[in-house]
Write a sequence for this structure.
């Protein structure tokens, strides 16, 4: 890879460290897009033994690149994202990939295509982890940072994407129970 292209690409995706999500951290500050992608990738690494027939390296790559477009577009919460927003993000990804060597750009484009088609075990695991990491983050954040919609979303979001795996269904249920406790504890405290 040409050094200048590497520096330009890194300069653009540096915005993933600056662009925040609507999620908050446990310390009460907005979470960056980069932090979400990083922790989702760590989740994939930690679950490698639970999914021995899945190419975890590919899942980690999906986790790390899935929000690259948000370096340009910023984050839009899943419950607010429109088709138009998705198209804008896709165009941003295409423009970013043009900075990469052809073989690398092609490889990343194939990963994005696999994510969008949502047919492979890797794409399915990635999407489930993407959803679950967001829910865990919400549970870690102070409840006063939640939007009203998140009280119900935290109980249902991602349920469809874990149905194929008994392990992920149990994990989703644990996260749901954490949400219920968090909401209940706040109501008891008032």
């Amino acid at each position: 890879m040409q050094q200048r292209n590497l520096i330009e690409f890194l300069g653009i995706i540096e915005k993933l460290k600056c662009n925040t999500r609507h999620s908050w951290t446990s310390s009460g500050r907005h979470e960056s897009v980069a932090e979400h992608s990083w922790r989702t990738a760590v989740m994939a690494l930690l679950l490698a033994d639970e999914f021995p027939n899945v190419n975890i390296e590919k899942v980690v790559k999906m986790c790390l690149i899935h929000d690259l477009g948000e370096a340009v577009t910023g984050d839009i919460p899943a419950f607010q994202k429109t088709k138009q927003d998705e198209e804008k993000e896709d165009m941003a990804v295409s423009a970013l990939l043009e900075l990469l060597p052809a073989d690398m750009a092609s490889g990343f484009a194939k990963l994005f295509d696999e994510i969008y088609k949502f047919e492979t075990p890797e794409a399915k695991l990635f999407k489930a982890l993407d959803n679950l990491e967001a829910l865990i983050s919400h549970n870690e954040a102070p409840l006063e940072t939640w939007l009203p919609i998140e009280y119900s979303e935290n109980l249902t979001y991602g349920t469809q994407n874990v149905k194929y795996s008994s392990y992920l269904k149990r994990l989703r249920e644990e996260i749901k129970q954490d949400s219920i406790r968090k909401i209940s504890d706040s109501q008891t405290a008032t």
Observations:
- Residues 2 and 101 are 8 Å apart (CA to CA).
- The two ends are 57 Å apart (CA to CA).
